[in-house]
Amino acid sequence: MYSHSRDHFHPLGKGLRIFGWAIIGLVTAIIFGLLFGYFVELLWNWLMPSLFKFPTITYLQAFALVILARLIFGSLGHNHGEGYHHPRPHHFYSHCQHHEWNKRNWNNWEGYDAWWREEGKTAFENYIIAKAEHKDKEL
After folding, report:
1. Which of 30, 57, 98, 131 is a plausible cystine mate for 61, CB 3.0–4.6 Å?
2. Residue 119: is it exposed, middle or buried by C-beta count within 10 angstroms (0-12/13-18/19+)?
3. Residues 26-69: pLDDT tens digits?
4. Could you write out the DSSP letters of every residue in 75-93?
């Protein structure tokens, strides 16, 4: 049996759910920022005055330092996660999917190492030598 709540299909229900998750994400980000500011203050006031003779900083200065570091090094939202896929296929991929080597049977791949030891390495080296000789003749 297949059951869903009614708000799943209702546009207003979906919008409220998205708004709720956005608020939760914003609150979570603020909490992590405040905690991180606190730890930056602790570490700064513990290390920097003794190592580099820097003055101690307040919590607001540490929080501002966190925000500044995020602005300089963090890219603020342009970092897509590991599972992100671009909405359009990349130029290289669109050409490769129709290429002849992409349509081959890859079940014979186990024999590649043996072929490379027996024939492939020598054939490749001969190809490089012939290519270099051809280039010398052009000059």
Report:
1. 57
2. exposed
3. 999 889 988 999 999 999 999 999 999 999 999 999 999 988 98
4. -TT----TT---SS--HHH
Cα 113–chain centre separation: 32
Task: Say how many C-beta atoms besides its own lie within 10 A of residue 66's C-beta.
Answer: 21
Q: Where are the domains of the chain?
A: 1-76, 110-139
- Four-residue CA torsion sign, 121, 122, 123, 127: positive
Q: Find out whether 37 and 59 touch, Cβ atoms under 8 Å.
A: yes
Location of structure tokens 């920022």: 33
Rg (CA), the chain: 30
Tell me which residue has tokens 């570091």. Answer: 69
